[in-house]
Design a protein that fits this description.
30% helix, 13 helices, alpha/beta, globular, Rossmann fold, single chain, 7-stranded mixed sheet, 2 domains, Dihydrodipicolinate Reductase, domain 2
Length: 349
C-alpha cells in the first residue's frame, strides 16, 4: 500500500516535523506541501535539516475555492495550520480524502466552548461531529473507522495519558491539579514578544491561568471516559520553560481509596498493555524530556503516599504532541502497523 499525502501548512514547526517523519515512512508518498508565507521556496531552504532529503518546492496555500481541486486524488491530507484556518478549508476537501487536522479547530464538540476559548466563532460547526478525537491510545477503534481526525493538543496529550487509567477505573476523588511546562517551539515558528530568544532563553513564567484552550479539550475527553463534570474538577496551569522542545506535566491527585505504588503501576500496565508509545518508568522515577525529544514516546512515572498520588509525564510537544501522533493516527486509519515510520529513539546524551 502506498498512501499519497499532502500537507497544508508545511513551513511551520509542525509541518516540518510531518515532513521529517513522512519522508522516511515506507508506505507514504508525499504528493505536495503547501504554505502561506514561504510559497515558492524549496523545502530545504525553509527546513535546512531536510537538505538532500526533500528536493521540492512549497506550493501556494489554496483557498476554500481551490482546495478541493488540489486535494483531489490524495488518500490523506494533513493540516498543520494556525487555529482557525482549517475550518475554512475542510468542508471543501473531497469526501474520498482522509483528513488529519493538527490545529484546535475540530477538537471541541460544542461550538460555544470553542468560541469561548479560541476567541472566534466556529465557521464550520456542521463538521464537528464528523471528527474523531485523535488520542490514539484512548480512541484507537474509533480512529480506525474515521475519515476525519482532530489531533489532540500537546498539553492535552500529556495530561490525558497520565490521568486516563485512573479516571476510566473510577479511582479519583476531588479536584485534579495539572501543572505543565512547555518549550518555546510550542508557540510556533513565527516569533512573538514572549517567544523571542532574549526574552525566553533564561526565563520561566506561567500563562493563561484558568483559560488555556486545552482545558476544555481535556475535560471533554475525561468526561467520555467517566462523565463527572471534569470542567469543574480539573485545574490546568501551564508554564513557559527555558527549553526548546518538550512538555513535562506533574499531576496532583487524591485517590478514592489508598493504593500502593505497585498497585498503581499494575493498573497503568494493564491499561497501556497495547500502547507501544507509552513507556512506564516505575514508582518514584521521574521522566526526563531529553529521553523523549524527537520521539513519539510519552514517558510516565508516579509516586504514591496513601490516598495522595503524583503522576509525571513527559513528551516531545512537536512529535507525540503533534506530528508524530498525527502519523500514528494515519497508520491506524489506513490499517497499517501503528508504529510504522515512528520507531525512532531519542539521543543520549
Amino acid at each position: 500500500m502506498t498512501i499519497r499525502v499532502g500537507i497544508l501548512g508545511g513551513s511551520g514547526y509542525g509541518g516540518g516535523e510531518l515532513l521529517r517523519l513522512l519522508l522516511f515512512h515506507p508506505a507514504v508518498e508525499i504528493a505536495w506541501v503547501a504554505a502561506h508565507e514561504q510559497a515558492g521556496r524549496s523545502v530545504a531552504d525553509v527546513h535546512p535539516n531536510l537538505r538532500r532529503l526533500a528536493e521540492f518546492r512549497l506550493l501556494p496555500m489554496p483557498t476554500a475555492d481551490t482546495v478541493g481541486a488540489l486535494t483531489e486524488g490524495l488518500d490523506c491530507v494533513f493540516l498543520a495550520l494556525p487555529h482557525g484556518r482549517s475550518m475554512e478549508l475542510v468542508p471543501r476537501i473531497p469526501e474520498s480524502v482522509k483528513v488529519i487536522d493538527l490545529a484546535g479547530d475540530f477538537r471541541l464538540k460544542d461550538p460555544a466552548v470553542f468560541e469561548a476559548h479560541y476567541g472566534q466563532a466556529h465557521r464550520a460547526p456542521e463538521q464537528l461531529e464528523r471528527f474523531v478525537y485523535g488520542l490514539t491510545e484512548l480512541q484507537r477503534e474509533e480512529i480506525a473507522r474515521a475519515s476525519r481526525v482532530a489531533n489532540p493538543g500537546c498539553f492535552a496529550t500529556a495530561v490525558l495519558l497520565g490521568l486516563a487509567p485512573l479516571v476510566a477505573t473510577g479511582r479519583l476523588t476531588g479536584p485534579v491539579i495539572a501543572d505543565a511546562k512547555t518549550g518555546s517551539s510550542g508557540a510556533g515558528a513565527k516569533p512573538l514578544e514572549t517567544t523571542h530568544h532574549p526574552r525566553r532563553a533564561n526565563s520561566f513564567f506561567a500563562y493563561k491561568p484558568f483559560v488555556h484552550q486545552h482545558l476544555p479539550e481535556i475535560a471533554q475527553a475525561l468526561d467520555r471516559l467517566a462523565e463527572d463534570r471534569w470542567s469543574e474538577r480539573l485545574l490546568l496551569q501551564v508554564h513557559s520553560a527555558p527549553v526548546v522542545r518538550g512538555i513535562f506535566a506533574s499531576l496532583y491527585l487524591t485517590l478514592a481509596e489508598p493504593m500502593t505504588a505497585e498497585e498503581l503501576g499494575d493498573l497503568f500496565h494493564r491499561f497501556y498493555a497495547d500502547a507501544f508509545f507509552v513507556r512506564l518508568l516505575g514508582p518514584n522515577v521521574s521522566p526526563d524530556i531529553t529521553w523523549v525529544k524527537h520521539t513519539n514516546f510519552c514517558d510516565i512515572g508516579w509516586a504514591v503516599r496513601g490516598r495522595t498520588a503524583i503522576i509525571f509525564t513527559a513528551l516531545d510537544n512537536l512529535v507525540k504532541g503533534a506530528a508524530g501522533q498525527a502519523v500514528q493516527n494515519m497508520n491506524v486509519m489506513f490499517g497499517l502497523e501503528e508504529t510504522m515510520g515512528l520507531k525512532w529513539p531519542g539521543s543520549h546524551p
